[in-house]
Design a protein that fits this description.
Blueprint (H helix, E strand, L loop, with lengths): L6 E9 L5 H11 L3 E13 L2 E7 L2 H14 L4 E4 L5 H14 L4 E3 L16 H14 L2 E2 L3 H8 L6 H15 L2 E5 L10 E7 L5 E7 L9 H14 L4 H19 L20 H4 L1
Parallel strand pairs: 1-2, 1-4, 4-5, 5-6, 6-7
Antiparallel strand pairs: 2-3, 7-8, 8-9
Bound molecules: adenosine-5'-triphosphate and (4-amino-2-methylpyrimidin-5-yl)methyl dihydrogen phosphate (MP5).
Length: 279
């Protein structure tokens, strides 16, 4: 039976500035009517200008958070964001294999939108660790650079990326939500996203491109919205149809939040997760 209030766990890093990571996840889960929980993997010191420090938590502390939740609380969906180290990737993969949550959304966070690295995972170690996580996930949400890194294939234009996404889905038996925010066609009027199924079927959704630098945390926000909607029983295609226009509105409303010094060229402000409640 689908619960009235989906219970959603975010396994992710903390963003002190509140725009990405577990902070974005909790705001998004609440905005979509869910009950949010967190297992924090790393503390980051960051603001709208960039990342100053990254401090991964000890594996035991992360495992204790996960086990505490699983021992007492049923989860309708799990969203995974920044993991930070190969050890934490392995611990989370092991926990997923043991608890087998009904819905697992994996946002393969590697680099912040400021360009700062959020994982200390080399390519060789990373390949096996990502592979194990991908197998335990139901949906993976790469942007174009992350897809290229996960597959070792070119993903600079949309058709090449769709091909690489089909390969990733088939190889790891996971549905792919391919995000087009990083497409080179920066001047294009629309941004595509696509659900790519294991059998290669593609369901594409296009939305108007929002011209704003309030784009910090869009990936975290989208994956949390999709997890909450799937936890409430929606298909990935229906969840994307609802989340994408909501996220574009959150980006449009972001600058009015007046969070951070937008006069500096390094500014990447947060989206407004609460825009729908306020309007
Ligand atoms: N300029 C934009 N206008 C409208 N939607 C956008 C824009 N940029 C990104 N999006 C949407 O935001 C979501 C995240 O896409 P993107 O490809 O930027 O992922 P990401 O790089 O993981 O995000 P982040 O900025 O958090 O790193 C997608 O649904 C994408 O369509
Ligand atoms: C703790 C944490 N998790 C994820 C991101 C990625 O978000 P973005 O790519 O929008 O900076 C981030 N900056 N910080």
């Amino acid at each position: 039976m689908t619960p009235a209030v989906p219970r959603v766990l975010s396994i992710a890093g903390s963003d002190s500035g509140g725009g990405a990571g577990v902070q974005a996840d909790l705001k998004t889960i609440a905005a979509w009517g869910g009950y949010g929980m967190t297992a924090i993997t790393a503390i980051t010191a960051q603001n709208t200008q960039g990342v100053r420090a990254v401090h991964p938590l000890p594996v035991d502390v992360v495992r204790a958070q996960l086990d505490s939740i699983a021992a007492d609380i049923a989860m309708d969906a799990v969203k995974i964001g920044m993991l930070g180290t190969v050890e934490l990737m392995g611990a989370v993969a092991g926990w997923l294999e043991k608890t087998r949550p009904a819905v697992v959304v994996l946002d393969p966070v590697m680099v912040a939108s400021s360009g700062d690295a959020l994982t200390a995972v080399g390519d060789d170690d990373g390949r096996a660790a990502w592979s194990r996580l991908l197998r335990a996930a139901h949906l993976v949400t790469p942007n174009l650079p992350e897809l290229a890194r996960l597959t070792g294939r070119d993903a600079t234009d949309w058709d090449a990326a769709l091909d690489a996404a089909r390969g990733l889905a088939a190889e790891h038996d996971v549905t792919v939500l391919l995000k087009g925010g990083h497409l080179d066609e920066a001047a294009a009027a629309e941004v595509p996203d696509a659900v790519v199924r294991v059998d290669g079927a593609v369901h594409e959704v296009r939305g108007p491109r929002v011209a704003t630098r309030a784009s910090h945390g869009t990936g975290c926000t989208l994956s949390s919205a999709l997890a909450t909607l799937a936890g409430a029983g929606l298909s990935w295609e229906d969840a994307l149809a609802r989340a994408k226009p909501w996220l574009a509105d959150a980006m449009r409303a972001g600058e009015a939040l007046a969070v951070g010094d937008a006069s500096r060229p390094t500014w990447h402000g947060p989206v407004d997760h609460g825009h729908a409640q306020r309007s």
